[in-house]
Specification:
The chain has 314 residues and is α/β, with parallel strands linked by helices. It contains 13 helices and eight strands. The protein has one domain: Alpha-Beta Barrel (TIM Barrel). The structure holds zinc ion. Zinc ion binds next to loops. The site of zinc ion has 8 residues, from loops.
Length: 314
């Protein structure tokens, strides 16, 4: 890869994907402190919560307050998840810079997750785009094509279908499209084939991969995406995360290890690995029963590690 000065955006989804599966609840003021620590470590994009029914996911009940509380952090792009127009309006009202909408390629998972089939959810996205574009304050609209690499309910998800859904999503006018391995069934060859198929269909509109580490292949899958030009990845500090409606899903790829890999390869993330690892402290203190993963945090940053020029301040 001739990517020596290339930069990669690591989007931390711990406060959303991570905390939604946690047994305990992180208090709002701790969330605010934790997000600030993550931003101070150099993460420029953080998904801070989701505007979903607090009955379904009580850990996310304070998302409005969290969004408002972190907007003042200099240079931070504040993302929030929403599954429908009501959620997107709440995200806009709170001042989120980005709304992220899940659209499951597997119809069965889509019905379990958002109570709508895939095609209906694409129509929902169209309605959200129309609403957001009519507002005075702009908000970026990202969509994650969930279960793009397999589904715990349906099994295989044909990549032609992934490309078809991605094409329909691109036609709604969303800004960015991600492919999500919601349950973590992907392997590098599948990532390569699917990313290529979707790139052929929608080109650079495919910007990001959201990967889970269920089978221990998360970073291998990230590498497969990198080699095809993907430069945005979701990850969770300590590898927390999962999907409440996708049985068997386990944690996201580990931010610490992803940053270690990218920086070691000469790709600039802008993240200070030492400070990033230090941000595990507050997470562990607040949710002591959650197991935190990370090779580099367990072993310590090796002497051979060299960080690339930080992108902060550019
Ligand atoms: Zn996820």
């Amino acid at each position: 890869m001739s990517a020596a000065r290339d930069t990669v955006t690591v989007c931390e989804v711990g406060p959303r994907d991570g905390l939604q599966m946690a047994q305990g609840r992180m208090a709002t003021d701790v969330k605010l402190r934790w997000i600030r620590q993550l931003a101070d470590a150099g993460l420029r994009e953080i998904e801070v919560g989701s505007f979903v029914s607090p009955r379904m996911i009580p850990q996310m009940a304070d998302t409005g307050e969290v969004v408002r509380g972190v907007l003042a952090i200099d240079g931070l792009t504040v993302c929030a998840l929403a599954c429908n127009l009501k959620g997107a309006i709440a995200a806009h009202d709170a001042g989120a810079h980005v709304v992220a909408i899940p659209v499951s390629v597997s119809d069965t998972h889509s019905r379990a997750n958002v109570n709508k089939g895939t095609d209906d959810q694409v129509e929902m996205v169209r309605g959200i785009v129309d609403w957001v574009r009519a507002q005075a304050r702009p908000m970026r609209i990202d969509v994650a094509a969930a279960t793009a690499f397999g589904c715990s309910m349906e099994g295989d998800v044909p990549r032609q279908r992934v490309a078809q859904v991605a094409t329909a999503l691109a036609a709604t006018g969303v800004d960015r499209i991600a492919l999500a391995d919601t349950v973590g069934y992907a392997h590098p060859a599948l990532v390569r084939d699917t990313v290529r198929e979707v790139q052929d269909a929608i080109g650079a509109r495919l910007t990001k991969l959201h990967l889970h580490d269920t089978m221990g292949l998360g970073l291998a899958n990230a590498l497969a995406g990198l080699e095809l030009g993907i430069r945005e990845f979701d990850s969770c500090l300590g590898g927390l995360g999962g999907c409440p409606f996708a049985p068997g899903a386990s944690g996201n790829i580990v931010t610490e290890d992803l940053v270690f890999m990218l920086e070691s390869m000469g790709l600039a993330t802008g993240v200070d690995l030492q400070r990033l690892i230090a941000a595990r402290g507050l997470l562990h203190e607040s949710l002591p029963d959650e197991p935190l993963r990370s090779g580099v945090a367990a072993a310590g940053i090796p002497r051979t590690f060299r960080s690339n020029a930080p992108v902060r301040g550019l």
